[in-house]
Write a structure and sequence with these properties.
three-stranded antiparallel sheet
């Protein structure tokens, strides 16, 4: 690599040219957009993601829920406890293996799915993107995540 090539690469070190910084800023902005939409429901963004996971597949173990969300039990357990205190989920220990805890939606938690449609619509409007654009962006980000996870696993 020549000195000129290195100098050109140094220009890529500018913060605004970094993919990681663009993703970080977009993530923060999206989370800030969710906040006022979720507050009337009494939910934080991670709690909302947890409920969305349970709306998709109810009666998951804490371990399975954590794997799906990419959260460890130290983060997930207090989050589930708050959801339980708010009446959205219930936890139940497995009778055969006390270490296993299953998380299930309550009727109130399941009913929140109807209100989540309004949240989804508001987020769609806030992005200014069509559903096709949102789907393409999501798919690109999933592909990027998967490629990075493959590299990390090696």
């Amino acid at each position: 690599m020549t000195a000129q090539d290195r100098d050109e690469l140094k220009q890529e070190l500018l913060l605004d040219r970094q993919l990681c910084f663009a993703l970080y800023g977009a993530s923060l902005a999206l989370t800030r957009t969710y906040k006022p939409l979720l507050e009337p429901l009494g939910l934080t963004y991670p709690q909302y993601l947890t409920l969305m996971t349970l709306w998709e597949t109810d009666h998951l173990t804490v371990k399975a829920l954590g794997a799906r969300l990419g959260l460890d039990s130290g983060t997930l357990s207090p989050l589930i406890k708050r959801l339980e205190q708010n009446g959205y989920v219930r936890r139940q220990r497995d009778g055969k293996d006390e270490r296993q805890v299953t998380v299930s939606l309550t009727q109130t938690g399941a009913a929140l799915k109807e209100k989540a449609v309004d949240v989804l619509m508001a987020i769609g409007n806030a992005t200014g993107c069509s559903m096709v654009e949102i789907a393409a962006l999501r798919d690109d980000l999933i592909a990027l995540r998967d490629r990075l996870n493959e590299k990390h696993a090696l």
